Amino acid sequence: MNYITVKQFFEENKKDLHLKILAGKEFLETKKIVVSDINRPGLALTGFFDYFPYERIQVFGKTEFAYLKKQKKDEILNVFKKFFSLKICCVVVSRNLKVASYFIELAEKYNVPIIQTSLFTMKFINSAMIYLEKKLAPKITIHGTFVDVYGIGVLLLGKSGIGKSEISLELIKRGHRLIADDLVEIIKLGDTELIGRGINIVQHHMEIRGVGIIDLKSLFGIGVIREQQKVELAIFLEEWEIDKDYERLGIEEKYETILGVKIPKIILPVKPGRNLSIIIEVAAMMRRLKAQGHNIAKELNKTIINWMKKEDKNV
């Protein structure tokens, strides 16, 4: 299961989300955030804890505190004893609202960090959820090269030494951009979107056999690199086999499944004399056309069939 600690959430967002610790600083490292959803515990404050999503960050805003002011202290204390005993990861108080001393005391007793933000409640929730969705998204690291070709994220795959880096270098010289070479981290956002990016420590570096490691940003400038891109096409490079039947028409779409998401796939045979960088450019442009609803192979096939029907009638 993916998770981040409350400490990581706090440290990486304290500036942008205007965060500060009110209580439980010593518990930040041990508390884990495992879901991107955030909860406003309105029903819990009435004493209804059935289906209470305790695993979420709990946010208290103006509405929650207005409700608390109208309740008897003894009644609300009983509710909060139950609330804080449910293994909550942390509580966030929005709008720099003042927190009662008993609230702090119960949080400390049950090892629950209390974080305060100056942001309005919904502003905090929206920003925090965007951050958490990216941090907690399913991810995988694969061996390959990832390039931006005409705005299409093209994932080049194949066995070591097949020429992925050399082809990418040629594409860069032709005006396209590198996202990652050798190791590509792919993150699943939502149900159907994959985002690819490089591993920070080696990002924008490339190994060229016979030359060594090169830094593309230093050699060609910042314009040839990109931090991340949507994965829209997977191209498998393999050595040409004389007896193998390769795709000639492109009518039927093939797919590669990554993290449960289907990505259009092309198997591209490699042999001396083929200009693979130009072929990959054409494949990327074809992908854009298909995304707009144009399948040239199917359209040509339909045109030929209609022509044959007309010819049959004229015979």
Description of the structure:
The chain has 315 residues and is of the alpha/beta class. The chain folds into 2 domains: 4-135, Udp-n-acetylmuramoylalanyl-d-glutamate--2,6- Diaminopimelate Ligase, Chain: A, domain 1 (3-Layer(aba) Sandwich); 139-300, Rossmann fold. Helices cover 34% and strands 30% of the residues. The protein contains 10 helices and 16 strands. A 5-stranded mixed sheet has the order 2-7-6-5-4. Strands 8-9-14-11-10 form a 5-stranded mixed barrel. A hairpin with a 3-residue loop joins β12 (205-208) and β13 (212-215). It is elongated, with a radius of gyration of 27 Å. The termini are far apart. The mean pLDDT is 89.
Could you name the key traits of this structure?
single chain, 315 residues, alpha/beta, Udp-n-acetylmuramoylalanyl-d-glutamate--2,6- Diaminopimelate Ligase, Chain: A, domain 1, Rossmann fold, 2 domains, five-stranded mixed sheet, five-stranded mixed beta barrel, 10 helices, 16 strands, elongated
Provide the CATH top-level class of the largest domain.
Alpha Beta
Largest sheet: 5 strands, mixed
Oligomer: single chain
Q: By CATH's scheme, which homologous superfamily of the largest domain applies?
A: P-loop containing nucleotide triphosphate hydrolases
Provide the domain count.
Answer: 2
Shape: elongated
Provide the low-confidence segments as ranges.
none
Instruction: Give the helix proportion (percent range).
Output: 25-40%
- State the separation between the terminal residues, measured CA to CA: 68 Å
Which architecture name of the largest domain does CATH use?
Answer: 3-Layer(aba) Sandwich
Structural class: alpha/beta
Q: State the total count of DSSP E strands.
A: 16
Run of helices and strands? EHEEEHEHHEHEHEEHEEEEHEEEHH
